[in-house]
Amino acid sequence: MQTQVATQTRQNLQANSMPFVLSRPHGTVIAEGVAEQFSSAHAALERLRSGTISAVAGALPFDLEEPAALIAPVRLMHDSAPPTATPTWIPPMAVTGYFPATAEHTSRIEAAIARMSDSALEKVVLARAVTISASEAVNPSALCTRLVERDPHGNGYAVDLSAAGGTWVGRHLIGASPEVLVCRTGRIVTCHPLAGSAPRDLDPEIDRTHAAELLTSTKNLTEHAFVVDHIRRALMPYCRELRLPNKPTLTKTRELWHLGTPIRGELRSTDTTALDLALALHPTPAVCGTPTATARDVISNVEGNRGFYAGAVGWTDHNGDGEWMVTIRCVILDADQTTLTAYAGGGIVADSNPGDELSETSTKLRTVFDAFEVQG
Ligand SMILES: C=C(O[C@@H]1C=C(C(=O)O)C=C[C@H]1O)C(=O)O
Q1: Which residues contact 186 (CB under 8 A, 6 or more apart)?
Q2: What is this structure's pTM?
Q3: Interface predicted TM-score (ipTM) over 0.90
Q4: Among this protein's residues, is 136 annotated catalytic?
Q5: Which residues form the Chorismate-utilising enzyme C-terminal domain (predicted)?
Q6: Which member of 32, 122, 123, 223 is catalytic?
Q7: What is the CATH number of the domain that holds 171?
């Protein structure tokens, strides 16, 4: 029965009626139908708590003052198989612009580094965007399937952003994030923050050297420590036990090595849902900076509104269980279905090298560029 329903759901994906799908190594969560839409995460949480909706799925923006794109699905499906779309064909795509221009992004990094010597700012994540044009309408399911097929861990997501209203109606958020903001199963809470990056290399020996250097790089370890510290402080009030390794380990995607720390806690109360935890943790210094408020101000002054990039994508069910990923390695597909915007950022600290930071964003962009065969 479960398999039959899952097959029907996959057929719905093929028909392009896809409010939410999150593919993970351990399975896929699919929202079937939209019972209600929420642009306020707190309103959705209140309804979940009162038992008047059975689940919430969707996306939180970078700036929680901005509208969220959340739905109460008619049904939240768990499928052991990865999502599929037919056809998986996607039209040719080409870059149409860089926002800001690469020279301007480098200047912004230099200005941020200069600021760290005479202000409280210790880390800020600066991002840039690249616009892409497709020769024909793109099916969001096909993009998501492409990313999932290519991702070594089967990660991928696609979210209809219409619930956020206004200019978000008809737009989709599609990506493949390696970073778990928070996962909650019963009383067990896990996080797997990533911060600190090095490019992969086709030559296995060079690749291993990059990994080994990352693991001992003071600059990257500092960048990472800000994130773990933030998560410790944010989770402490909710957890009666919290286990944090004292040093990070390596995580790899197809394009990058990252420093990652697996964190595990036990909730004091089962009233704390996965969505409560996501709201308490977001934005971590993996996408914002340290101190949070100072870094957020810098980002908003320098970049303006990030929308859904660097937010969170996930779901929470009636038990409070759920999983939220950090919204990175992603694109926004406009309602015209031919215009896409890809985003990538990187953590800047006092001893960052602007040239290296720029190339780190180019490497991160390759997650979507290579999957969609975007011409530069
Ligand atoms: C901000 C991004 O990635 C984040 C920043 C990282 C870094 O600065 O090293 C690493 C992983 C992510 O937490 C992105 O991919 O856009």
Answers
A1: 270, 319, 321
A2: 0.95
A3: yes
A4: no
A5: 103-364
A6: 123
A7: 3.60.120.10
